[in-house]
Structure formats: structure tokens, C-alpha cells
Amino acid sequence: MLTYVNIVVAGLLTGCVYGLMALGLSVIFGVIRIVNFAHGEMMVVAMYAALFLNQRLGLDPFVVMPAVAAGLFLAGYALQRGLINRYIGRPEHQQFLLLLAVSIMLTSSTLMAFGPDARSVQLDYAYDSFEIGGLLVDKVRVLAALGAVVGAVMLWMFFRFTRTGKSIRACADNQVGAQVVGLDVKRLYAVTFGVGAACVGVAGTLLLLLVDVQPYIAADYTLLAFTIVIVGGLGSMPGALLGGLLVGVSEALSGFIIMPSLKSLFSFALLIVVLLARPQGLVGRRA
Amino acid sequence: MMLDIQSGVSRRSAFAIGLFVVVMLVLPLLVNAYVVSVLVVVLFSAYLGQAWNVMMGFAGQLSLGNALYVGLGAYASAALFVHYGLPPWIGMLAGMAAAGIAASLIAALSFRFGVTGVYFALLTISFAEFTRIAFDHVDWIGGSSGLFLPVVTLDHDDLLHLRGSPAMFYYVLLALVLSALAFSHLLLRRRVGLYWQAIREDQAAAQALGIDVFRYKIAAVALSAVMTAVAGGLMAFYDNNLYPDTIFAVSRSIDIIIAPIIGGLGTLFGPILGAIVLTMLSETTTNVSASLGVNGLKQWIYGASLLVIVMLQPAGLWPWLKSVLKLDGVR
Amino acid sequence: MQAMTAPLLEVESISKRFSGLQAVDTVSFAVPRGAIVGLIGPNGAGKTTIFNLIAGVFRPDAGAIRLDGVDITGLRPDLACTAGIGRTFQVVRPFGALTVLDNVMVGAFRRTTSPSEARRSARQILERVGLADKASAVASGLTLPERKRLEAARALATGPKLLLLDEVMAGLRPVEVDLMVRVFADLSREMGLAILLTEHVMRAVMALSHHIVVVHHGQKICEGPPEAVARDPKVITCYLGASRATA
């Protein structure tokens, strides 16, 4: 019994990080209505950036995180403003191809810069754990989850309390109305993409604490982000987090109960059911 | 973009098409075996793209899971051949039926529940991935270790059993591509083709004109799947081996759709042009990056080329080429 | 003898509610064979909803709709079309990437499966609405008045018994309005086509309609021949406000 609780807790903690990653996607899709097929790739770039800084400067990932987040923000802003913006009203297949091309270039860039082998970050506290009751929890996992929660809260505060954040929400609700009121939609979209990228930057840095990084894991994480966002509900921040937790737990449990190779089967079955029965997700509203 | 059925094909265009067909027919006789194998890849890509184009370019349904139908076609004909000695063409019929039924089910469920656009695309990915993982665990077809066709060395081409030289496959595929072209062209002139395009343009308006949108959308998806399954069967016999992780892969689904998008969605020759351009691109980048010895450079150039194409010619290369060569009346 | 005088369209006490708003409230009226009936009322009166109920976009919460004696209540839009309802949309919806001829052929294919038949039929209709010279033009390149005519032509090609025209005159200049009025009057007379139209352009409604139905807040408040309706105090009130009516 205790083993199960341990696994569920580990899943929940990992799920927090997944949730933050998915939040970035939800924000981008919820506001700009662009399907970011390069989401996982952006995260992998963040992971490599964090790894690079960690290895070169000997700094703990938590210390480099602001730098990585800032860098991703700028990159996301530039990408949206310079490239993606023109494709906003265009047919889906063109947007898809655009972001696919971007994702290929990102993955191949990491491949060229760091090679195909898996890398991981070296931490002094990698094997520490807390003991609560009979539970054994990895220290890294707890810290990563905390980081994710803090990141999510900061995101929420940004949208709730800052002027830019509120303007972005206005845009998402009613683009024409926002323009009429004088909001610079192009700039706000770029900020939104930047914010989504920053989320992914933070999530990536945190994920680095938990898994090895390789150029090819990107596509799986893009798909994972979409699964979470759909299950939790597009455009819903609590939904993305809830979805992340659910996926984290189901991944952990199914990896343990059923054959590891079958665990994705469960998440795809779940995605199919949700898409058919409740596409607005658990928390989202019907469009 | 639409062929005005009245004006027909101009003399210049008819000549161009004729020339194209003749060139394709004699090409294997003029080039070495390696080039023939590259051309086979081009033809596979062109055909699969054309099949996808029926669903997307004509009826407007974005599917990112066509590898599912490739895999079903491949496994049906290969498994029936390996276990029961059934000739591949018969096994392919089973594959086509399986693909058609699967596609109809997926489409019916999706459209009944109002799943469209990106959600539909994700649904198709999910079904393909689900099947991939499931097939990994089915021993009868070899599971994740793969299914292997017995390799035979013959001194002649056995068309019935699809055992033969790359040149044989080349001609089979060429026949397939040309028939797919002719078939699509025919469909577009008839009611079903125009109805599909109406649905692609504006579903509500189409429905107000008496079109049973639900049924026609399912038909487009099913036809596309059936066509795709044929290629799957051929692929199994060309490669002689089959793994769920490669045949059902998302990357395969994505590769299938890049050619028609680059070439020109909804056009007749777009998928072929796209296939030619992409294969040539792939070959040159492989050579370039091999000589430079940089891991990942090939993909980077590939990605950059896709980016350049979608930025400069978002509607596809065929419409642009058509205007340059002044070929009117050809889709 | 009874059959000859029975109305083509019978709308019987239909109602429709949209989460809290009673858009249509027990409305009944009829469209006689070959007649042109105008449906008027201020903005938000429920006219387009009534259209959508007849055309099958929505299902009425209550009431019945009969076309030529056949119950078409709640039929899907494509089945309503097959039953004989043709409709245009308030905001035109041409098949932009297709040519004008192809657009109309889509409609014509409702009555035949032969492409040559459909083409012939489509060309004839384009002649009638005055778009024959634009047959090969791509629909997205048309001006608004041309698109409106295309929309009507497309619906006509399906061979409807009843044509629903949803604010088809909106955005047209007076000269263009007069042209459209002539086109529809001729069509109705020559083809025996019944038309139900909603309009804000009074010039067109008065010129075309044999009979007018006035709705306000989802309810029918008046009906009758155009001159009578124009003088009815209830109608004047709903358009101009209470003070004017008593003045």
C-alpha cells in the first residue's frame, strides 16, 4: 500500500512540472489561438540552456532559472513578433507547417550543439530524500514541484494584477474589442508568446532535475503538453495544472502496474475519450 | 485555383502532362539502381500525399494520423502472406477494408461529437499512437521485434507476389500515382468532388444547399484511408520488414503531409511536385552533411528549407510553378 | 379544390428559447403558394431565428412547420433543402475559392447528378440573376451586390418551393435594390416561386410583398397587406416609439 502512495506522490510532484509546461501551451493557444507544435522543442532548448549554464558556471539550476526564463521570453517574443504573427489568420495547415519547420530547426540545433547522447545535470542533493511518516520523497522532486507551483502562482499574479496581463486577457476574450479600446494586439500577442515560452523555460529547468535531456525527447513532450491541456481544459489555468497532476499520477501508476511499454496506451486512450466526450476538458468551458 | 470545367486543359498543358508521363516511364531505363530506389521513395511520397490530399485538400479535414492506415494495409497484407501464403494483392484488400472501417469509425465518432480542426488532428494522432503501442504487443505479427517477409532471390520479377527489383516497384507505384491522379481529377468534376470542396469552403452553406455534410466528410476520410492502405501493403513488400514503431510512427504521418502542403493543397499535381522537391532536398542535405560530418546539419537545412517555402509560397510550389510555366487549366 | 388554396408554408405556434431569452414566442403565419411574404420587425425581433427554425438550423421548442402539407419541423438543414426550402444567409457565405459557376452548380447538383445537366441549369440561373458574364470569375473577387445575387442564384439552383431571403438587400444602393426587386418579382411570377423575406429596407419589402407579417420581441403583432400594415398603430409604435403613434 505504501508503495502505491509513494508512487502517487512522486507522480503528483512530477505532475506539477508537467502542469507548468502545459500552462505555457494553454496560455499561447488560449490567447493567440496558435497551436504551438514547437512547444516541446522550446522546452528542450531551455533544458539544454540550463544544463550549459550549470556545467559552465557551476551554478545550481535554480540559480540559472531566471536567466533561462528571461532568455526564453525574449526568444518567444521575437519568434511571435517576427515570424508567427503573419500566420495568425491563415489556414491551420500553414501554421502547422511553420511551427513544424521551427521545431525541426530547434531540435537539429540542439543536436548540432550538444550531440545525440543523453545528458543530465549533476547535483549534490540528487539522492537526498525526505521522510514523512512512512513516505520516502525525493528532495529533487519536491523542490521541482515547489518551483513549478511558484512559477504558476507568479503567472497567475501576472494575469490577475498587472496591466499587461489584464490587457492580454482582454485580447483573448475579445480581440476586436481590445483593438477598439486601443490595445496594441501585436505587441500583446508577442508578450503572450514570450510568457508562454518563459513558462516552458522554467518548466524545462525544473524537469532537468528529474530526467535526462536528449534532442529527441522533444516531440513526446509536445504531445504530452497537448494531452494535458486537452484533458484539463484549453484556456483554463487550473485546468492545465489539474491535467498535469492527473497525467503525472497516471504515468507513474501505469508505469508501475502495467508494463512500462503500455503506459502511453492509457494516456492516448484517455485523450481519445476526452476529445470525444468532453473536449472542453475537466475544467474548461465549452467554446 | 478551381478548374473551370468549361475551359478544359490547354494544349500547352496537355503537352506538359504527356511529357511528364513519358519521362516517368523511361526514367528507370536511363538511371542507375540507386536513383531508381530514390524515385521509388518519391513515388511513395507522392501517392501517400495524394491520398491525404483527398481528405484535406478536397474535404478540409486535417488528419495527422494517416500512418495508421499505412500500417493497417502493411500488416494485413504482410501477415496474411507470412502466415497463410496469401498473395499480397488479396491481403491488400483486407488491409483496405480494415483501413476503410477504421477511418469511418474515427470520422463518424469525431463528427458526431463535433471534433474538428486541431482537436480532430490530435484525435487522429491518438488513434495512430494507440494502435502503434497495441501492435507492439501482438505476437502474431511479431510485436515490437517486427514482422519479416521471407527474402527470396529471383532472376525475374514476380508481380503477383510482389517479389522483385526496385524497378518493378517503381512501375507499380507509377501506375498507382497516375491512377490516383486520374481518379482525383474525375472525382473533382463530378458531384462528390464539388460537394467536398463546398464542405471545405463553408460547411453551413453547404448544408443549406442540401449536402449531407456528415456522410460526405466520412466518405472523404474513408476513401483517403483506403487509398493509403494500398501504399502500406506495397511498402511492406518493398522493405521486407515491418515494425509497429516505424510504420505507425507520428513522424511518418507528418512526413506524409509535408509533401502535399509544400506542393500545394487541393491541387492535382501538388503532392507529386512536393514529393520530388522534398526527396531531392533530403538527398542533397544527406550528402552535404555527410561530407561535412556535422550531426544534425541535415535536419537543420531541411527545417530551414521548409520554413523558407512556407514563408515564400504558402499556397504551395505547384501554383507558383504553374504560373511560371503558363500551364492553365491544370489543377 | 382544397389543395389548390392550401398554403405552401404553414408555421404553427413555433417558439424558441435561448438560455433565458424567449427569441420566438408562439408565432404563426402562412405563406400561400407563389406568394411573396415579408417578415419585418425591429432589430432583435426574432426574424432570423424564425428563418433558422424553418431552415432547420434550430429545432423549435414547440409548434410545427409544414411545407406543402409535409411536416418539416426540426429537419436538418440539408433535409429541409431536399424538402424544398432554399435559403440565403444574412452575411453572405460564398464558396470563395470556387468560381461563380461552380458555386451555383453546387446548388444545381441537388436536382441532378449529371455534371453537364448541373452546368446547364446553373448557367440558366446565372442568366436570370444577371451574373452570366461572371461565370468563370472566382467568387471571392465579387462585389457585395454580386455576392448577394450569387447567394440567391445558388439557393435557386436547388429548385426550392420556398425561398428564404435573409436581409438580402442590406448594404445595397437604391439602384441595386430596385434591380434585385425586379429579379425576384420576375422569378416569383415566372417560376411560381414562393418567397419569404426579412428586410429592413422598406422600399423593397413594400414593393415585393403581397402580404406582411410583423414581429416584435419574438411575437407576431400584426399581419396583412403592405398598406394596411404600414398604417397600423401597433407597427408604428414598435418602430418609432409610443409617442409617435398617438401624435
Tell me about this structure.
- The complex is a heterotrimer of chains A (287), B (331) and C (247).
- Chain A is mainly alpha-helical and 287 residues long.
- Chain A is 74% helix and 3% strand.
- Chain A has one domain (2-277): ABC transporter involved in vitamin B12 uptake, BtuC (Orthogonal Bundle).
- Chain A has 11 helices and 2 strands; from the N terminus they run H-H-H-H-E-E-H-H-H-H-H-H-H.
- In chain A, helix 6 crosses helix 8.
- The radius of gyration of chain A is 19 Å and the shape is globular.
- The mean pLDDT of chain A is 87.
- Chain B has helices at 11-30, 33-58, 67-84, 88-112, 117-135, 166-189, 191-201, 203-208, 213-239, 244-247, 250-263, 270-292, 297-312, 317-325; strands at residues 147-148, 241-242.
- In chain B, strands 1-2 form a two-stranded antiparallel ribbon.
- The radius of gyration of chain B is 20 Å and the shape is globular.
- Chain C is an alpha/beta fold and 247 residues long.
- Chain C is globular, with a radius of gyration of 18 Å.
- Chain C has one domain (2-246): 3-Layer(aba) Sandwich (Rossmann fold).
- In chain C, the strands form 2 sheets. Chain C has a 6-stranded mixed sheet, sandwiched between helices. In chain C, strands 2-1-4-5 form a 4-stranded antiparallel sheet, covered by helices on one side.
- Chain C has helices at 2-5, 47-55, 77-83, 100-108, 115-129, 144-157, 174-191, 202-208, 226-231, 233-240, 242-246, and strands at 9-18, 21-31, 36-40, 62-67, 70-71, 85-87, 162-166, 194-198, 211-216, 219-224.
- Classes of the chains: A mainly alpha (287), B mainly alpha (331), C alpha/beta (247).
- Chains in contact: A-B, B-C.
- The interface between A and B is large, with 40 and 46 residues.
Q: Notable features of this structure?
A:
heterotrimer; B: 331 residues; mainly alpha; two-stranded antiparallel ribbon; 73% helix; disordered N terminus; C: 247 residues; alpha/beta; Rossmann fold; 4-stranded antiparallel sheet
Helix and strand pattern of chain A: HHHHEEHHHHHHH
Residue runs with pLDDT of under 50 for 5 or more positions of chain A: none
Q: Which strand-content bin applies to the residues of chain A?
A: under 5%
CATH class (first level) name of chain A: Mainly Alpha
Number of strands of chain A: 2
Low-pLDDT windows of residues of chain C: none
How far do the termini of chain A sit from each other?
42 Å
What class would the helix/strand composition of chain A place it in? mainly alpha
The Rg value of chain A, from CA coordinates, equals 19 Å
Oligomer: heterotrimer
Work out the helix count of chain C.
11
Structural class of chain C, by secondary structure, is: alpha/beta
| Principal-axes shape call of chain C | globular
Total discrete domains of chain A: 1
Number of discrete helical segments of chain A: 11
Most strands sheet of chain C? 6 strands, mixed
Order of secondary-structure elements of chain C: HEEEHEEHEHHHEHEHEEHHH
Widest β-sheet, arrangement of strands of chain A = 1-2
Task: Identify the strand order in the major beta sheet of chain C.
Answer: 6-7-8-3-9-10
